[in-house]
Amino acid sequence: MTIRLLPTTLVNRIAAGEVIERPAAVVKELVENALDAGARRVEIAVEEAGRALIAVTDDGVGMTAEELALAVQRHATSKLPDDDLTHIRSLGFRGEALPSIGAVSRLRLVSRSAAGETAWAIAVEGGVVGTAEPAAHPPGTRVEVRDLFYATPARMKFLKSERAERNQIADTVRRLAMSHPEVAFALTEAGRTILRFAAEPGDLLDARLARLGAVMGRAFSENALAVDAERDGIRLTGHVALPTYNRGTAQQQYLFVNGRPVRDRLLLGALRGAYQDFLARDRHPVAALFLELAPEEVDVNVHPTKAEVRFRDAGQVRGLIVGAIKHTLAEAGHRASTTVAAQALGSLRPEQGGAAAATPGPGYAYRPQSGTGVLREAAAFYQPLDRDGVLPGLDAPSAPPAAAESSGSDLADYPLGVARGQLHGTYIVAQTGDGIVIVDQHAAHERLVYERMKAQLGERGVQRQGLLIPEVVELEPEAAERLLARAEELAELGLVFEGFGEGAVVVREVPAMLGEIDVQGLLRDLADELAELGETLAIKERLEAVCSSMACHGSVRAGRRLNQAEMDSLLREMEATPHSGQCNHGRPTYVELKLADIERLFGRR
User: Beta-carbon neighbour count of residue 63 at 10 Å?
Assistant: First the structure.
């Protein structure tokens, strides 16, 4: 077989297959070029989800006729002034985007430099480059991509539906808009606005939070915690959501390295590791993090679409992310997300189309609108009252105030209020200065025990308590082997056991703070936990994960009656303990309802 050189047009199409796999990739490359050109306004227009047209217009520095001719040549770039691939300070750098796009579409560029008297245009069709010609255009650049993949029809078969491709384009624009809050963005399709973000004024952190709120929603900005940490020349900034504000997928995790949006496994794993104490395994944190470090410390040239990066010291980067996020979450104290109360109120409000909200009127008791079935029957019981009528018993003297009633000043001293009672042996109801708090006693105490175990583990080791009669626990042989392989690590947590024949262990000591526990259930749960964790986590992270299971067994159970002192003690300890706003599985430990919200439920507002 004879070796031969491939034609230039075919080479460009091969390169396009690496860089341009879908319309969103074209948008990404063109918008990044606009941002590198110093644009402060970027407008993206598409038709048929980018198949028919992608047009990107910016107000950047623009290009001269000579630069325009070079821009559509392979390996031509203005972003490597010293030809050093380790000092890449721009978003685009490969010099392949425009010629690759031109190889599989009908490409037209119009540009005018700030000092230029006229604009210039050049066209590339199926890889064939035309000549630059004078044109009319304000300072800046407009790039039009028509009939994408017309030169490679096979690629069209792999595109998804218009809706899916449109969503990918919108996601690409959102990510780029997050990292450049000072730039205005607009995305339209056939004249219909899909996205529009105004340029955010102010310093970077404030402008970025405003942009994140515009992209991710106001609920995120209300429940976001600012992250700002630096270590050995690496800086991490951004915002992370409270653990109780989480999602079922990882779609709302936005990561940036030197302004470049990435989907890097190391960074995603570090984010997950930082939240592992606070979320169940099927829940995901919400965050937008921006990592800044010297260009020579990161290789951005490891992926054709620049979606992945490689760090010179990956361990240092991971440690910074995990440490900074954990410190930020600890500073939030017992705070839970505002969405917890909103969800609770939403579940209390009548559903649309069901039991509709009542329309209170003069002289009438609360009356739901007539419906079908039970609602129709129930409506018959709501009878009109005379304006001066009273219900039986309401003319009796008021009861004397309870002795335990606290003054408003006392309530203001306690963020979680003063306990007023316990419902169903599970929920503590507390009164605050401007509302009420409902606490899940088991979830709250589980978090408190867990935090105490971690503190003891980090200081002097968990205190142990010997069993008067050692307890033998029978397990499957594989489960027993897993436990015995981790016996030394578990001893640090105060759990001491040893083998007792095949498929059994004998437990001699347990953590003192757990009190009376179900040893059999604890050992079985730990065996399952270790099977799920495997070898993927570091020893310390495995220990903390096991602590979570042990804390669950040692916490106050639902159904246990608590007296006034015990309930207030639990509330005070929650106020003084970091992360007490959520249990070890990411569920909220309390719900706070403001008096204004309660009044709205009853139509008082």
Answer: 25
- Contact 549/525 with Cβ under 8 angstroms? yes
Residue whose token pair is 């096991």 = 546
Decide if pLDDT at 362 tops 80: no
pLDDT over 80 at 195, yes or no: yes
Strand order in the sheet with 435-440: 418-423, 427-432, 435-440, 590-594
pLDDT digits (tens, 9 = 90+) for 16-42: 555 678 899 999 989 998 998 899 999
Task: Examine the pLDDT at 570 and tell me if it is beyond 60.
Answer: yes
Tell me the torsion sign for CA atoms 340, 344, 349, 351: positive
Residue 458: in which H helix or E strand, if any? Answer: helix 441-459
The token pair at 199 is: 């340029």
β-pair type (234-241, 224-231): antiparallel
The two tokens of residue 345 are 């109120």
Domains annotated for the chain, with CATH where assigned, are 8-197 (3.30.565.10), 204-331 (3.30.230.10), 340-347+405-605 (3.30.1540.20)
C-alpha–C-alpha distance, residues 197 and 420, integer Å: 48
Share the mean pLDDT of the chain.
79
**pTM more than 0.70:** no
